[in-house]
Design the sequence.
């Protein structure tokens, strides 16, 4: 065999192998690239058709030079049927010269439930404007019901472009039940942060929105609707649930990322501890330890029921002894700690009472309140990033301002479990005022190193908190607490509060309130929250056409807010022949 033939065969084999490799590369590329190209094409087509929705928190407003909060912002997390709209916000862009712009982040407690116009953010803005009338302050409340730190972080990142001067964070109640938490109904729980980031990114694409919309329609039969706290009653999470540790880890990582955002912009971040009602709100649900046997449970129940009988008869020493016997058998029952705490308070032992009441909150398996670990994480992050982060210990301030003097926040400051009343919001606003003033430039602060905030009564006047809205708030809270997971005791208390404030419905009084609020509304037409409340007063005194005119102008400035659209629709039915 000649040399040419010898070398030709390996060459042909090599060519065949190379051809096969090339063929596989082409096939692999086709398998990978074809779906990618299809998805890119689908995304482009959906955007051209304007299908889906924007996912930035701030979007262009109808008026040039303004941005607005996005009414559909939470749809990627909750879906369209369960989505919670943010507060209607209009901001000038670029920021007007001489404006000091503070952004507040959080969930419903920061948002101001039951009326956003009376949140600590609104009171804080009124305080700052009252004490520094020559300056222009904007306190922008980006809080949204039912969200947690996983959702707050991207909101904060979207605020970069709006020239913030300071960030305020009050978040922590929904870390378990909010998006990506172990007790949520909205999104899958995961330990991996990259999966959370991926899930958020998918939700930001029009293709992802289409897929989720189709899946939601198939999975729910189109029946899902917002039912408040009742939606979470099948999602109990014990204090020793293994996923809770991941929750605290995620929370810390999110707070640190928020601190990094502030560092990036060179602005201060005020990080607040979270206020919860530990004194006057019984745990929503309790569970025994999982290995408790039937005999031990019978013995525990006997001691517990005997203790309840003694407590009801105000034999507190005997009740403490009986509850102590039950505690020795099973110390993981939240309701037991709550009753034991109340008995210690009644017996004059505030320290023991506080210890058991706080433990009762931490053992509550319906985790609607920030627990001890959440506030520990807040304090640790503030200490770790002390150069940028200022701790605002709202929890300590609330405990010090509680009228009972036992170092526990309760119904004197909160409507129910976490939402503060006007007095509670004033306490938090006053503390924030003190911390913010320390960061203000000398050109605003002037020579007064420590100006005092306005008192609670004047603050209520400045934000338009009238007798009508005292009743309106009480009525909303009574409706919230009239059913699961709240106790009958709280429901009766809330109903009595609403009854007590019925004087706010006096029509002559409300007419005077309308006249007092009118010049404020005329001077600040972009103050949509005050105008929204103004329309409620107009409706109550029968000035329906004026209310419709205001609502129509508000909807023109800020389209898509469901509450105003529904309110105008109701009024339209009351006025024959009116058309939007």
Sequence:
């Amino acid at each position: 065999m000649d040399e040419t033939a010898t070398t030709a065969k390996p060459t042909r084999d090599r060519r065949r192998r190379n051809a096969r490799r090339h063929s596989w590369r082409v096939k692999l590329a086709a398998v990978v690239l074809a779906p990618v190209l299809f998805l890119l094409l689908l995304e482009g087509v959906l955007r051209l058709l304007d299908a889906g929705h924007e996912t930035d928190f701030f979007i262009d407003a109808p008026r040039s030079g303004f941005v607005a909060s996005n009414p559909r912002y939470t749809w990627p997390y909750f879906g369209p049927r369960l989505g919670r709209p943010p507060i209607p916000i209009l901001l000038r862009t670029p920021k007007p010269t001489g404006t000091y712009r503070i952004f507040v982040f959080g969930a419903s407690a920061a948002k101001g439930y039951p009326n956003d116009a009376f949140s600590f953010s609104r009171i804080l803005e009124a305080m700052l404007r009252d004490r520094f009338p020559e300056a222009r302050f904007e306190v922008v409340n980006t809080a949204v019901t039912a969200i947690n730190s996983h959702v707050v972080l991207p909101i904060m990142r979207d605020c970069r472009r709006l020239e913030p001067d300071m960030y305020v964070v009050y978040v922590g109640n929904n870390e378990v039940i909010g998006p990506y938490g172990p007790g949520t109904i909205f999104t899958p729980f995961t330990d991996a942060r990259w999966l959370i980031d991926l899930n958020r990114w998918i939700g930001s694409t029009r293709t992802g929105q289409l897929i989720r919309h189709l899946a939601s329609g198939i999975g729910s039969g189109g029946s899902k609707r917002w039912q408040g706290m009742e939606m979470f009653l099948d999602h109990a999470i014990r204090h020793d649930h293994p996923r809770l540790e991941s929750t605290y880890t995620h929370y810390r990582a999110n707070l640190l990322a928020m601190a990094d955002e502030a560092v990036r912009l060179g602005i201060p971040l005020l990080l607040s501890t979270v206020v919860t009602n530990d004194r006057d709100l019984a745990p929503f649900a309790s569970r025994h330890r999982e290995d408790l046997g039937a005999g031990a449970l019978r013995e525990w129940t006997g001691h517990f029921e005997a203790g309840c009988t003694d407590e009801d008869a105000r034999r507190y020493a005997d009740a403490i002894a009986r509850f102590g016997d039950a505690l020795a058998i099973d110390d993981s029952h939240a309701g037991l700690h709550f009753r034991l705490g109340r008995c210690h308070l009644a017996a004059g032992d505030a320290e023991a009472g506080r210890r058991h009441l706080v433990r009762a909150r931490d053992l509550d398996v319906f985790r609607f309140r920030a627990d001890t670990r959440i506030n520990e994480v807040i304090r640790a992050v503030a200490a770790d990033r002390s150069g940028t982060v200022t701790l605002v210990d709202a929890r300590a301030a609330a405990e010090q301002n509680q009228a009972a003097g036992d170092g526990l926040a309760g119904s004197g400051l909160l409507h129910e479990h976490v939402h503060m009343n006007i007095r509670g919001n004033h306490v938090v606003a006053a503390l924030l005022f003190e911390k913010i003033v320390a960061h203000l430039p000398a050109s605003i602060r002037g020579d007064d190193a420590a100006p005092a905030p306005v008192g609670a009564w004047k603050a209520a006047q400045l934000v338009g908190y009238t007798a009508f809205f005292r009743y309106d708030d009480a009525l909303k809270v009574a409706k919230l607490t009239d059913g699961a997971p709240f106790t009958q005791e709280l429901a009766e208390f809330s109903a009595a509060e609403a009854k007590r404030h019925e004087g706010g419905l006096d029509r002559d009084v409300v007419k005077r309130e309308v006249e007092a609020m009118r010049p404020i509304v005329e001077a600040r037409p972009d103050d949509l929250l005050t105008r929204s409340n103004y329309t409620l007063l107009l409706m109550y005194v029968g000035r329906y056409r004026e209310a419709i005119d205001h609502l129509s102008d508000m909807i023109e400035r800020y389209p898509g807010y469901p509450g105003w659209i529904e309110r105008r629709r109701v009024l339209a039915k009351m006025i024959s022949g009116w058309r939007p």
